[in-house]
Amino acid sequence: MSERSVSKQKRGKRWYTLIAPEQFDRQEIGSTMADEPEKVYGRTVEVTLGELTGDQGANNTKLTFKVNDVSSDAAYTEFVQHELTRDYLRSLVRRGASKVAANITILTTDDYRVQVQPVAFTTKKADRSQEQAIRRVMIDLVEEAAEERTFAELVDSIVEGRLSSAIYGEAKTIYPLRRVEVQKLSLEARPEEVAAEEEAAVDVDEEDIAVEEA
């Protein structure tokens, strides 16, 4: 493409400042270019927790935001994912020790469906029953957290490390632990999407009943 073509293409576009959600203090987290506001919707941006907090020690945590509203020169985002970097997770693995992970799908009090993946690292090799007991603690505490918190509150609990600390405190009584982390948190469905799925499921059930009666 010629320089003239590139220049002409950019002239029809404008920059939009990407804004984090209110729970992250509406911080600027980047910018994106588009020729129409509608094309900005759905775009994602990834930043580290360290970039948001100024704490370089938090750069091993990646946060992903998705644009869900656009104004004249700003694009507002929602939080969609928290994930630890692979290098950081790899650094926690020790030979002769156990890594215990779980994958839990939960519904928050405001009907957001979320997938949470906690992981625990033991000091030495745990046996199978101990690993199962640790995993049970993870599942129970994650489910309890969802029953008591909104989506925003759950995100705060995970980003600030409170949920992983709670798991560590209880699971260490089963077997000595070196570290507990939530390696990933993903937004799977918003309240309106969950409601639509439930309504569709009810419709299917009613059809099944009608068929059986016939």
Automatic annotation (TrEMBL):
Keywords: Ribonucleoprotein, Ribosomal protein
Species this protein is from: Halopelagius fulvigenes
Top-level taxon of the source organism: Archaea
Ribonucleoprotein found in the keyword field: yes
Entry similarity comment: Belongs to the eukaryotic ribosomal protein eS1 family.
Record-linked Pfam families: Ribosomal_S3Ae
Gene Ontology CC: one annotated term: ribonucleoprotein complex
GO biological process: translation
Annotated NCBIfam families: PRK04057.1
Bilayer-spanning residue ranges: none
Name by which UniProt lists this protein: Small ribosomal subunit protein eS1
